[in-house]
């Protein structure tokens, strides 16, 4: 029900997508800095020739269960549920999967972050501002919050040839068919391999059409069928399937409609529509809290910076030097369907949303498929 508080779920950094990456690093003899997943360590110890991590954007546990039966291939091979990271969004979660680091360590905390260097909020995947205009003639995030990937660490360890296959990475593909073909092609080569493979569905369909849409259903069913076919064709290969986060339908509000909130801010909030950071003008903290809680106190948990750090919401490790500067004075995390948009386009067009603290957004599957071990 819109506006109703949902079941709150915090990330468990000992049972999460973070631990998938660290199990992989451990298995390939590369340096790892966090706990691993025992269930994954066990199958990785069988030393498969190929290890493939397939990440499907927003294919959370609740989203799979809605469209796939208990006898479906993916649900049959699900070992357990694990959590995403905070916030449960592609920018933070994919970077954790790609780096083996907690969000506080890699500092790719959300879709949009405020960089003093350009005096603007930056959509860090695409290097634009809130209105999608370029912010600089260089890639701001790559310059200030770069990180070493799991693929690079495994290649440096020399124990396998590692590849990153996605529409955005070194091994670039443009269609789902190309993704599946690339995985097959690499696995059929002689050397030992690690493959990270990412596809941006069903997330894109859910954002545009909602989580119950035919488009979302078709994508999840298609992914299920294609992975089943792939599993039959590959030999001596371990396939791990997971998601970066889950997805829910949103109830969007436009932050600029709440002048009593925006008047207290140094600049418009960034991060995510369901996890907002607020940088408050000096002397206006009480006014900000009163205004925010008046409008959204039932929909968001408002954390002070001190509470964010004490609760280790973004993880607990050696924090990136930029981390604390990105989280502002307050973080507001949604626990209902509410989303706080900063521009008209996302306000009007986003039907599906994520990045809040609900169990639907935070819960993702650990799916393990062992293919024809010789």
DSSP, total strands: 17
Mean pLDDT: 96
Beta percentage is 15-25%
Distance between the termini: 51 Å
Number of helical regions: 17
Which CATH architecture of the largest domain is right? 3-Layer(aba) Sandwich
Which structural class matches the secondary elements? alpha/beta
Shape: globular
Name of the level-1 CATH class of the largest domain: Alpha Beta
The tally of structural domains comes to: 2
User: What would the CATH topology of the largest domain be?
Assistant: Alkaline Phosphatase, subunit A
The gyration radius over C-alpha positions equals 20 Å
Question: Which strand order spans the largest sheet, edge to edge or round the barrel?
Answer: 2-17-8-1-7-5-6
Please estimate the helix content.
25-40%
> Superfamily at the CATH H level of the largest domain?
Alkaline Phosphatase, subunit A
Largest sheet: 7 strands, mixed
Q: Give unreliable regions as ranges.
A: none
Protein name: Alkaline phosphatase family protein
Coiled coil: 213-240
InterPro entries: Alkaline_phosphatase_core_sf, Phosphodiest/P_Trfase
Pfam family, one: Phosphodiest
């Amino acid at each position: 029900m819109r506006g109703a508080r949902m079941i709150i779920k915090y990330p468990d950094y000992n049972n999460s997508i973070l631990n998938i990456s660290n199990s992989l690093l451990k298995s390939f003899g590369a340096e790892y800095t966090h706990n691993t997943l025992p269930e994954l360590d066990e199958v990785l110890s069988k030393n498969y020739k190929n290890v493939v991590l397939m990440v499907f954007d927003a294919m959370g546990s609740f989203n799979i269960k809605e469209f796939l039966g208990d006898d479906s291939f993916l649900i049959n091979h699900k070992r357990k549920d694990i959590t995403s990271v905070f916030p449960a969004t592609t920018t933070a979660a994919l970077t954790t999967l790609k780096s083996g680091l907690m969000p506080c360590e890699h500092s790719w905390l959300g879709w949009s972050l405020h960089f003093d260097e350009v005096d603007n909020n930056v959509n860090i995947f695409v290097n634009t501002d809130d209105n999608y205009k370029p912010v600089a003639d260089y890639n701001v995030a790559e310059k200030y919050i770069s990180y070493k990937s799991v693929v690079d660490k495994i290649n440096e360890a020399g124990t396998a040839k590692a590849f990153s296959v996605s529409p955005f990475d070194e091994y670039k593909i443009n269609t789902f068919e190309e993704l599946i073909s690339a995985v097959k092609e690499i696995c059929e080569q002689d050397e030992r391999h690690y493959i990270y493979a990412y596809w941006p569905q069903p997330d894109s369909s859910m954002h545009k059409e909602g989580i119950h849409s035919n488009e979302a259903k078709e994508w999840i069913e298609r992914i299920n069928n294609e992975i089943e076919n792939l599993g039959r064709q590959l030999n001596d290969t371990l396939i791990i399937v997971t998601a970066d986060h889950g997805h829910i339908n949103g109830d969007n509000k436009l932050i600029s409609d709440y002048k009593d909130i925006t008047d207290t801010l140094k600049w418009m909030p960034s991060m995510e529509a369901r996890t907002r950071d607020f940088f408050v003008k000096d002397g206006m903290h009480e006014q900000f809290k009163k205004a925010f809680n008046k409008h959204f106190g039932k929909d968001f948990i408002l954390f002070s910076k001190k509470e964010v750090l004490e609760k280790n919401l973004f993880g607990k490790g050696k924090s990136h030097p930029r981390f604390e500067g990105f989280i502002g004075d307050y973080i507001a995390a949604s626990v209902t369907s509410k989303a706080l948009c900063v521009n008209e386009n996302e306000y009007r067009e986003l039907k599906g949303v994520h990045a809040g603290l609900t169990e639907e957004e935070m819960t993702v599957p650990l799916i393990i498929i062992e293919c024809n071990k010789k």
